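Pair request: fold both.
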Amino acid sequence: MEIRTIGIDLGKSVFHLVGLDERGSIVAKKHFSRGQLLTYTANLPSCLIGMEACCGAHFLGALLVRQGHRVRLIPAQFVKPFVKSNKNDYLDAEAIAEAVQRPTMRFVPIKSTEQLDLQALHRVRDRLISRRTGVINQLRALLLERGIIFRKGRRYLRRQMPLILEDAEQNLSCRMRRLLEQLWQEWKSLEEQIQLLSDEIEKIAGQDEACQRLLAVPGVGSLVATALVASVGNGAAFRRGREFAAWLGLVPRQFSTGGKTKLLGISKRGNPYLRRLFIHGARSVAMHMNREEHALGAWMDQIESRAHHNVFVVALANKLARIAWAVLAKEKIYHPLPGIQISSV
């Protein structure tokens, strides 16, 4: 029988494949290395191939598309309901083949090389920032054990570090001074690496047309704009801004039954890094925007008057995310009109 649909369970070096015919019956069950898999699919007629959207899926998906196949990437949580009984690699591949045929299934667009490169920049920068935070926290803890306390703020501690290391009257042994000097040098090295990556991201944002349009949206800077383009491309995977905000996890979780609607805290699904950036951008807008001169001002005052501040910030992040999606997907420039009442979320 001719193979019409293929499910591939991805691995680091071993790939399990299950092929279905037009009636959905299993007609192929194989496992390959990467090279063997590409050779096998190259000799098949064009068919629908499903894979989980995980590490390496975008690269392999692009290769399979060049061979003439229709490739669909599925979020792993949407494949799980199709797994029968126990879990093994062949059952996973079969579940993927079943899921990819569903007409209502949600898919992940295959990222381009430029998107993957930009995503890598953000991931490395985020890791360096986490490492810098760890170094700073360790410095504060070591100094606290010697009775040296500083107020909150990374910049303030950075200004004081040279003075601490040079002050002979501080209760620090020679061994501790050497250790603090090593941590201080590591901190400065991390700062330089983070700045280099930030400069590169700024440069990309200045050259990309989609990023330039996004920069006009309140709360969206170079980091948010480039992270958004790297994650969703042109936004075509979503039909409307509401779907994009739901994917980001900026909408309430719902637990409704018996016709009774119950809304909980935000779902926190989707891309946690991008969601965090939008919330930080919303906090900045809430603090610094001149509400009397901006279209969002009246809406922000209305929400803030009846909601907790954190709820207000998340609602604002939701609003900004939906505006950003519209600017990205519809290829339009954001032009806020002053003094116009904006409808509630």
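--- second member of the pair ---
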Amino acid sequence: MTVAVTGATGHIGANLVRALINEGRSTRCLVHVNCQAVDGLDIERFQGDVRDLESLCRAFQGADVVYHLAASISLSMADWPMLEEINVTGTRNVVEACLRTSVRRLVHFSSIHALVQEPLAIPVDESRPLVESRHYPPYDRSKAAAEREVRRGIEKGLNAVVIYPTAIIGPYDYQLSYFGEALLAMAQRKLPALVTGGFDWVDVRDVVAGAMFAEAKAPAGASYLLSGHWVSMCDIAAMVEEITGVATSRMVCPLWLACIGAPFIKVISQLNGKRPLYTSVSLRALKSNRHISHERATRELGYEPRPFRETLVDTLRWFEESGQLTRPQKAKSGEFL
């Protein structure tokens, strides 16, 4: 049976495709522009775009399962038109294409950001409502709206399950995620300052395993939070220094001060031709709910996230092996070599 994957060249997609191949499954990848993450793999490629319904119908024809990962990620408050087009309309097209081609099961990747975080003192689980207010960042609203498209498809008879990962970290980060970029900057001592706050980080390989468990075991319409471990940015930097032997930044900025400086950081980054890592959206995320429950996924799917430090070591090792991380010679006795 063929498995079709949208967003196959992204961070999760690169890991999912490899896991599917390792299980001996016939894998069809919807590719748009950058194919580096799947080059050389034993896959079937389909050129397409989630904004083009007909290309999706062609890609899904004869597929038993579709994993929908394709999405645009933004740390800006000004990207709603693009996010609506790709994340919302794109998901509507995926749902329609699945219905037209009689796909047996859709596994839809949503995000922890689609769920309301408040009240912060109570753990977030799958019962939290989807965000809706315009006070939330456009990315959050787009992922919530995309899930509503999937729910409408379920009402029409689509067999779908929804996955909510937290912040992704791990190997095969070819297109360099926002956190991957921050991690490299830490390891190369190019991050000028750290900020207080943190997030729930989850290994991309654990997310893939959880999603594949859900494909095989979950009842239609079920949803699962796939979380990992809450770790502060300062603790991550300390671990990076210990693992690599390269000293990281000692300057720590409180979140309130970083929020004031975010507009200036954005301007400086744009002048330097770089995307800003500290924005009002990313800083807001660093003070979100620390307690994300994966109890349902553990109980129903057997999901268990690995230790965060193991993930960090493996990620830094992959960055070095892929040529993206070069450490000084004197620091090359680090444990991940």
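Observation on the second member. The first strand starts at residue 2 and ends at 6.
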